[in-house]
Every structure is written in structure tokens, then in C-alpha cells.
Amino acid sequence: xxxxxxxxxxxxxxxxxxxxxxxxxxxxxxxxxxxxxxxxxxxxxxxxxxxxxxxxxxxxxxxxxxxxxxxxxxxxxxxxxxxxxxxxxxxxxxxxxxxxxxxxxxxxxxxxxxxxxxxxxxxxxxxxxxxxxxxxxxxxxxxxxxxxxxxxxxxxxxxxxxxxxxxxxxxxxxxxxxxxxxxxxxxxxxxxxxxxxxxxxxxxxxxxxxxxxxxxxxxxxxxxxxxxxxxxxxxxxxxxxxxxxxxxxxxxxxxxxxxxxxxxxxxxxxxxxxxxxxxxxxxxxxxxxxxxxxxxxxxxxxxxxxxxxxxxxxxxxxxxxxxxxxxxxxxxxxxxxxxxxxxxxxxxxxxxxxxxxxxxxxxxxxxxxxxx
Length: 372
Description:
Blueprint: H1 20-23, E1 51-56, H2 70-80, E2 82-87, H3 93-104, E3 111-113, H4 127-141, E4 146-148, H5 172-181, E5 185-187, H6 206-211, H7 225-238, E6 244-246, H8 247-250, H9 256-265, E7 269-272, H10 277-281, H11 284-293, E8 298-299, H12 308-319, H13 345-360, H14 365-371
Parallel strand pairs: 1-2, 2-3, 4-5, 5-6, 6-7, 7-8
Helix pairs in contact: 3-4, 4-5
């Protein structure tokens, strides 16, 4: 006698499997879903207009990135229409000179370098004037700006053990000298908002902070992000004749209303988007509105080493209307995709090079040095 088939076998159901939670054991680092979205994808091999990358560390004195052959760096630039790369971390003295000798002298016009402050001398009675002299020497050697890392406000301490605040008056002569010389100050204060929250299952940068736990600034040992930025903004306002580049979209691209207010309030501030493509790219409508309104205040920066693919990824984000693609370094900063902004040509040209050229045209260091 034939058996009757089970009518429930093979049926499509609508309830979760009873053991579903127990089977969700895939490690987050191994989760690499392939998007099923069918959408246009464009490759932009060369920027539509030549580029000045105002935020890079290629072959710098601080050795932030791996050293590459300078000829290889120029090849990458030629292939992608990058005219000039600004090496921010040039330090000072002989270390600065080594960058100038390796990168600037053999390739005129292709690289620029910024100097830095020697905070090991913070307790010297004449710290400010020492740093002014060091800065003047750096400019005489060929430096065209000053770079301040995020350690100011977070890590730099004086002999008493107290953190040196971003608006510490001991630094005022340095900022003023930059204004006198006509060189910009590129300054990194605070970090992504998630870095100031617990590293737990609610932190959108959980993977990144697990990889770099020293980037976590949550807790009583650190100032709040808001207090750090407030000190920075007070310092900006105190030195209206100095041009400041608030790096990483003023280090709050998650809050473009705040950045907009900063730019509206302080005309001596510029921004760039180094290592913040991911943050801006996930909010394309708001970001495009921001780029359109502040098209004269935004500069192109990468802070991502030197690779053709890296530059081309940024060009795709700025020039096309492509949807839902990987930002450079995905998923390093967070598990989300980005969207192109398809900026108008007039805006692209300003962001790619015109705004940076206008800023660097303020330089009058040689004349200022003669007047001292």
C-alpha cells in the first residue's frame, strides 16, 4: 500500500526557523555580502580637472605611511591628473630637510610640505618664540604650512601632567606667525564621534576601534568631543588673520549643521575631506547641499596613501551619480555604502584645485622674513 505524502514537507513557510539564532555564528570579519543591486557603475580614471591633494603623508618625516619610490608616487599622480600633493607631516630641521631633498627638489611643483610644532619644548619659558623661530626656519627651507596632529588636546601634556588645550595661550605666537607669513594651519582636533562612545555592540565603528583601541577616547581620562572642538573654535576666532584648515571636514562630518555654522561664523576657516569620504558619501543629499553652499571653502584631501584606485574612487564619488558602492577602505570605517554626488563642473574645479591655489597664494613668507 502506497504511503501518503506529508502535505507539509517542502512547503514555503512564513515563520522563522526555531534554531535561527543558534545558526547565526558567522564572524563579523567574515561577513562580505555581495550586493545584488543592479545599478550603473562608472570608472573615472582621471579627474575632470587637475587636483591638489591637500592632505597626504607620502614619504613624510613622521613615517606615518610606508615609504614608496618617489618616482612611483609621481606615476600615480600623472595617471590620475593629480598635479600636486601636500605632505603634511614634515616635522622640522633636518627631518624636514630630508623630505624637501627627496620629494620637493627633484619634482618641482609636484609636492609641498608642512612643518610641525616640537611639543617636547612645551615647558620652555620661551616656548612660543622658540617655535616661531623654528617655523621661520622651516619656511626658509621651503615649508608652506603648519600641521597640527590630534595629539593636541588629547595627549600632549606639560610638566605638571596637565593636557595642553587647543586654545592654550602658549601657542598664540605660533598661530599669529602663520598669519604673518601667509601660511595655512592644517589642524586635526578630536576624531569621529563614535570614538568618544563605548566600544560595544552599539558603536558603528566597532570593528575599527577593535583594530585600533588606542583610537577610543571615551571616559573620564579624555575631554569630550564637544569641549575639544569648542576650544579649537575659540582659537580660530582669536586669530582672524590666520587661515586654518579644519581637517576631516572640521572633524564632525556626521554633523554638517555644526560644520556649516562654523564656516558661517569664521571666514578664516577652510575644510577638506581627507579620510571622510565614507561619512559624507553615506549622506549624499545633505553632503551635496553642503558642497554646493560652501564650494569656495572645501578642498580635496585624501589622507589615504597613494594608489591610483584610491584617487579614482574619490573621483567617482565626486563626479558621478553612481549609487551604493564601496568607499575607499571599506569596511574599515563602518559597514555602509556611499553614493556619488555628481557635482557641477564649476564646483568640481574649485574643490579639485582652485580653492587650494587661492589659499596658497596668500604666502608672503619671504617678504615677512625680511621685515623681522
